[in-house]
Amino acid sequence: MVQYSADLDSAFAAVADSTRRGILERLGRADASITQLAHSFAMTLTGMKKHVAVLEGARLVTTRKEGRVRTCRIGPRRLAHEAAWIEKYQQLMDDRFNRLEALLERTRE
């Protein structure tokens, strides 16, 4: 059985949610406070804090507290392992479809 890393699992779990993907896109343009993010997504502060915590757990977002404001920014993780896994899976699927196509071509003759 293949073992996948916890980092891979946490990253995929974090980006599986459309709100969290939206947060990453928003933070890609500029840092934002949790309050600003909550307003952008028409969400409660508590709900936004939970989403940010998941992204922080996956190291996709970092936060820092300045006074009473917690500011979020894109984290240090760059999803290189996840992209490599997706590419490997894509290649496996392409290979299968190519074999199927070759089989269909042979059976047509």
Structural account:
The chain has helices spanning 6-15, 18-29, 34-40, 45-57, 80-108; strands at 32-33, 61-66, 69-74. With 109 residues, it is of the alpha+beta class. The protein folds into 2 domains: 1-77, Arc Repressor Mutant, subunit A (Orthogonal Bundle), CATH 1.10.10.10; 79-109. A 3-stranded antiparallel β-sheet has the order 1-3-2. Strand 2 and strand 3 form a beta hairpin. Helix 1 runs antiparallel to helix 4 (45-57) and helix 3 (34-40) crosses helix 4. The protein starts with 5 loop residues before the first helix and ends with a helix.
Question: Could you give the topology of this structure?
Answer:
Layout: H1 6-15, H2 18-29, E1 32-33, H3 34-40, H4 45-57, E2 61-66, E3 69-74, H5 80-108
Antiparallel strand pairs: 1-3, 2-3
Helix pairs in contact: 1-4, 3-4
Name its key features:
109 residues; 2 domains; alpha+beta; single chain; three-stranded antiparallel sheet; Arc Repressor Mutant, subunit A; elongated
- Looking at CATH, the homologous superfamily of the largest domain is Winged helix-like DNA-binding domain superfamily/Winged helix DNA-binding domain
**What is the CATH class designation of the largest domain?**
Mainly Alpha
The average pLDDT value, as a whole number, equals 91
CATH topology of the largest domain: Arc Repressor Mutant, subunit A
Backbone shape: elongated
Low-confidence stretches: none
Largest sheet: 3 strands, antiparallel
Count the E strands: 3
